[in-house]
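QA checklist item 7 of 12: single-chain prediction sanity check.
[x] sequence parsed
[x] length recorded as 410
[x] structure emitted
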Amino acid sequence: MAGETYHFSDYELDIARHLLSRGGEPIHVEPRAFDLLCHLVVHRDRVVPKNELLDEVWGNRFVTEAALTTALRTARLAVGDTGGRQGLIRTVHRRGYQFVAPATVAESSPAAGSGKAAGGNLAAAGSPAGADRQVIRFCRAEDGTCIAYATVGTGPPLLKAANWMTHLDLEWTTPVWSHWLTGLAHNRRLVRYDERGCGLSDWDVPGFTFEDWVDDLETVVEAVGLDRFPLLGVSQGGAVAIAYAARRPERVSRLILAGAYARGREVRARDDAERRAAALDLDLARVGWGHKDPSFLRVFASQFLPDGTRRDWEEFSAFQQRTTSPANGVRFLEEFARIDVSAIAHRVDCPTLILHSRDDVRVPATQASELASLIPDSRLVLLDSRNHLLTAAEPAWAAFLSYVEDFLAE
């Protein structure tokens, strides 16, 4: 198995180089999903039990079957399959899974790291970075709050400002974020961090304001030792990125904003009806998060992933609950509603790319248009999606990565 290359459908699975490709183009796959796919392809002559996959992919680490389900879904998506279609990976009820597509074995590849494989070493060959390759460290803000940050991948840096509900470790195991990480870390050194109040950073903190978030970003920049770098802000992380770019223009070479906004829902409300809607959103959050009400959590998840399945919403909700406390979840939403960087956005003087889903349910595309009107050297691209957080399976995700790659290459 160590050096074999398998061909099936239009895909090539090079186990030695840890690389899945289609038509010569590498496909980013979360590491554990890749290992799962490899094991199924190699043992395609039989049904592989769930316990065997758990042992093979996760070893001695204890995980639930939910992790296996997530990895299986990611593997299927990577090869154009789904749980409904099961054209390549079949579920055998109560027994396990089997790779059922016709596959051929090509000539063995040189071992990874030998320097003889086409395309060079593992990173140069386009293999995705993963949780087992990231390095997590900690730094302290001026008020003593411990902030966790991680670096993964090689190449020029890309710093991602923290956004709603992050967890440096668990993000690799959820379909909500894993494709973001592998895509953004491709041929780059991706730097990201958990904002105060969630993830691996301190949950009980002395301050919980927008300015604290901007200060935390600066703390991470100093801890990593970044000089001048491109900065990505997703959702409310976009406002944090804008504030930092306005504060430290000499540091930010390029700015990418995805699903971002200049003014929170409470600030941008234009009439009593919109103000009542904003207040209701917070009231529902206080009740729903406080009581961990599954119906509220599903509705909330559907605003981020309106085209997601019920299972997607459940996984999104479960991920949120593992990343912070109910009290902090409400505090985040209260602070998000009060965000307002409209008065300082004009001070961003670097080239800025604004990407936004055309029919975003959570943050309307009008907010992206407002950002484009406020930031001088900016360009706006509307993507064909309703999701606030783009999923791996939708065409808009590939378009997103393409726009980001081209923008950073300029």
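[x] summary fact logged: Residues 100 and 301 are 34 Å apart (CA to CA).
[ ] second reviewer sign-off
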